[in-house]
């Protein structure tokens, strides 16, 4: 049997991103919860809001007690350039 090569969390995450050239939004194509925000499974037991995962992956830790705002107003956008801790 061949060896199974696991993808990194970042690779798996980016598989659910569609980069819109018109708006520059990175639109989440994976699971979307009732509020319109994407969700990403970090592990089998742990899932987080996709925009928060993107912020932490590309920009760093989210300061405590702050929320992540979508500057583009697109809840499915995970482009770190469109996210701001407020």
Concise overview:
The chain is α+β, with helices and mostly antiparallel strands.
Give me some keywords for this one:
86 residues; two-stranded antiparallel sheet; two-stranded antiparallel ribbon
Description:
The protein is an alpha+beta fold. 17% of the residues lie in helices and 21% in strands. It has helices at residues 9-14, 50-58; strands at 17-19, 26-28, 39-41, 47-49, 68-70, 83-85. The mean pLDDT is 94.
Query: What can be said about the biggest beta sheet?
Result: 2 strands, antiparallel
Q: Per the principal axes of the C-alpha atoms, what is the gross shape?
A: globular
Q: Which secondary-structure class do the elements indicate?
A: alpha+beta
What gyration radius follows from the Cα positions, in whole Å? Answer: 14 Å
Strand order of the largest sheet: 1-2
Please mark out the parts with pLDDT under 50 across 5 or more consecutive residues, or reply none: none
